[in-house]
């Protein structure tokens, strides 16, 4: 079997207007991929840097997969949240990134966005902090379903990954 080892960290965020941020992350794989070790789901701590307004999380990632196909390879789904001045946790944005399959070190700038909805939804968001969220964020993994969503750009999450691949050439997977 071919093996893929993903080691790294959800490092930091930049260009968000809010300051007290944390991030939930999920790795999704399709049929043909099997996790051998590690956690595919995690959450960073809440972080705030008052000088740069860019939180630093450095939350570790360590996953080991086996596969016989390149189809439905791992995708990273990010959800960013903030804590407002009243202590409420408010959803901010989504981000999706295809995990590189070629061995090496990568710094991924995952640009995030949020659904905006109607003018009424935008008023709720602005004055009440009630952001629109998807019923099932896993719909973001299928790229065809994302084209009909009206969105607004948010900040960027920086992810550092080190990829190790083994035996992909033996199964006809040329990287």
List the keywords.
four-stranded antiparallel β-sheet, 1 helix, 175 residues, mainly beta, 6% helix, five-stranded antiparallel β-sheet
Can you give me a brief rundown of this structure?
The protein has 175 residues and is mainly beta.
Explained architecture:
With 175 residues, the chain is mainly beta. The protein has one helix spanning 119-128; strands at residues 2-14, 21-28, 33-37, 41-43, 56-67, 75-83, 89-98, 104-115, 151-166. A hairpin with a 5-residue loop joins β6 and β7 (89-98). It is globular.
SSE diagram, text form:
Blueprint: E1 2-14, E2 21-28, E3 33-37, E4 41-43, E5 56-67, E6 75-83, E7 89-98, E8 104-115, H1 119-128, E9 151-166
Antiparallel strand pairs: 1-5, 1-9, 2-4, 2-6, 3-5, 6-7, 8-9
